[in-house]
Amino acid sequence: MDLDEREIVSHRPEPSPGVLYIVGTPIGNLRDLSPRAEALLKRVSTIACEDTRHSGRWLKSIGVNAKFLSFYKHNTEKRLPQLLKKLEAKESIALISDAGMPGISDPGQKLVSAAKTSGYEVICIPGPCAAITALVSSGLPTERFCFEGFLPAKSKERKQVLQDISLEKRTSIIYESPNKLIKLLNELNEICGENRPIQISRELTKRFEEQIGPTIGEALSYFLNKKPIGEFTIVLGGAPEVSNPAINHDELLNSMKQLTNNGLSINQAAKIISNDTNYSKRFLYELAHTKTEKDS
Ligand code: SAM
């Protein structure tokens, strides 16, 4: 028996009835669809996907004849009971997203959770994921990282998340659309400083794939000269170790207070503490203002 045969017989037949399969699909290069994923998609009875037209066209072209059922953000609640009913009827279902791993920045996780809660088996057939592909191509630390996905659009929540990201020691991964990339880079520039390491992955796995960095300042000037077009994943280096790691927010505020009591403006105080601690000036300025607003 050669290796291929051993590999195949060591696994149970796929698909099994009443199982939900989470199937990773390419993020650009169609040759990244694994043989296992392709074989399964050709055999399941239903494929739940975000955009039936987009995925349907491609999958039909490779010989997939399953039923396609749309499953996206705005019809999730309606679809969940329908999909569970199919599992109850011993149908096999594959969940795919427009690209990459379902469940990452799409409604996939809700279906997985509902299926598991109702006692159905869930099996993942792994494939490409933009976040992980960008991370491992970035050269930034991969030992510990956090995934932020798309940042909130609402200003108050966004500000809070940006502040958290600016203090995060681990590498952060962010998804952003091309038309909002410069706004995000400006925000990161202000809160993290222009020297923070960054790698922006553009068009991963595609013909015009490129990495832009190595700092926020340089990435920003690159995109101010060249309009962002395509798909982007941002990998941001973690916050540098502060010179005094024991410093917490209260201690920072106390130091700021001492300086402002001596007649300096919040802006001047933030600049001095920023030099001493590596916290960004903008972060310190906002910390002091948030505290003042809470107190008043
Ligand atoms: N579930 C997918 C995954 O994790 O691979 C991501 C889906 S999310 C709705 C789409 C976002 O992923 C895009 O806006 C972009 O930020 C990122 N992305 C997807 N494909 C990409 C590519 N080829 N190059 C860079 N980023 C990509």
Query: What structural class do you assign from the helix and strand content?
Result: alpha/beta
Average pLDDT for all residues: 91
Order of neighbouring strands in the sheet with most strands: 3-2-4-1-5
Low-confidence stretches: none
Binned strand content: 15-25%
Q: Based on CA inertia axes, which overall geometry fits?
A: elongated
The ligands found in this model are: S-adenosylmethionine
Helix proportion range: 40-55%
Query: How many distinct beta strands?
Result: 10
CA radius of gyration:
24 Å
**Terminus-to-terminus distance:** 77 Å
- Summarize the helix and strand pattern as letters: HEHEHEHEHEHEHEHEEHEHHH
Number of helices: 12
Query: Sheet bearing the most strands, described?
Result: 5 strands, parallel
Describe this structure in words.
- This protein has 296 residues and is α/β, with parallel strands linked by helices.
- Helices cover 45% and strands 16% of the residues.
- It has a five-stranded parallel beta sheet with strand order 3-2-4-1-5, sandwiched between helices.
- Strand 6 (145-150), helix 7 (155-167) and strand 7 form a beta-alpha-beta unit.
- The N and C termini lie far apart (77 Å).
- 32% of the residues are buried.
- The mean pLDDT is 91.
- Bound molecules: S-adenosylmethionine.
- Residues 27-28, 97, 99-101, 104-106, 129-131, 175-177, 201, 203-206, 231-233 line the site of S-adenosylmethionine.
